[in-house]
Amino acid sequence: MKEVIPTSAAVRLALSGSRYVDVAALPWNEPVPGLRMKVLYKDDQAKEAMMLVEAGPGATIPEHVHGGVEWALVLEGTMEDDEGVVRRVTLFTGPPAADIRCGCLMERNTLASFMVLRV
């Protein structure tokens, strides 16, 4: 079985192998001011991750690199990068390329929250 994070009490493993994650019980991580994340799933070996991200009004996600496909579903607010604006209930997918650098800016007056899946 793959080593999957989170492994806290917030995760219940069913007999079938399915995982049930109590997202409300997971701790928030604040990698930079104005940006909070909850890691819902992470497999370093497979280079896969799923996160819930909450960004304060006007927050900036620093430029970063990811080596696989990135999927982001904006739940509230908007986020913007060099290629456009992603609005509430919009799914964004980024191409699989290790050398793509990206960052984004949140709308100035709105809290943004979104789910990110990297595979």
Query: Roughly how much helix do the residues carry, as a percent range?
Result: under 10%
**Which radius of gyration do the C-alpha atoms yield?**
15 Å
The number of helical elements comes to 0
CATH fold annotation: Jelly Rolls
Counting structural domains, the number is 1
Q: Mind telling me which CATH architecture this is? A: Sandwich
How are the strands of the largest sheet arranged? 3-4-5-12-7-10
Order of H and E elements: EEEEEEEEEEEE
Distance between the termini: 18 Å
Q: Give the overall pLDDT as a whole number.
A: 76
Instruction: Give the CA-based shape.
Output: globular
Structural class: mainly beta
How would a crystallographer describe the biggest sheet? 6 strands, antiparallel
Q: By CATH's scheme, which homologous superfamily applies? A: Jelly Rolls
Give your account of this protein's structure.
The protein has 119 residues and is mostly beta strands. It has one domain: Jelly Rolls (Sandwich). It is 0% helix and 54% strand. It has no helices and twelve strands. The chain has a six-stranded antiparallel β-sheet, with no helix packed on it. A hairpin with a 2-residue loop joins strand 8 (79-81) and strand 9 (84-86). The radius of gyration is 15 Å and the shape is globular. The two termini are 18 Å apart.
Compact summary:
This protein is mainly beta.
List keywords for this structure.
four-stranded antiparallel sheet; Jelly Rolls; globular; mainly beta; 119 residues; six-stranded antiparallel sheet
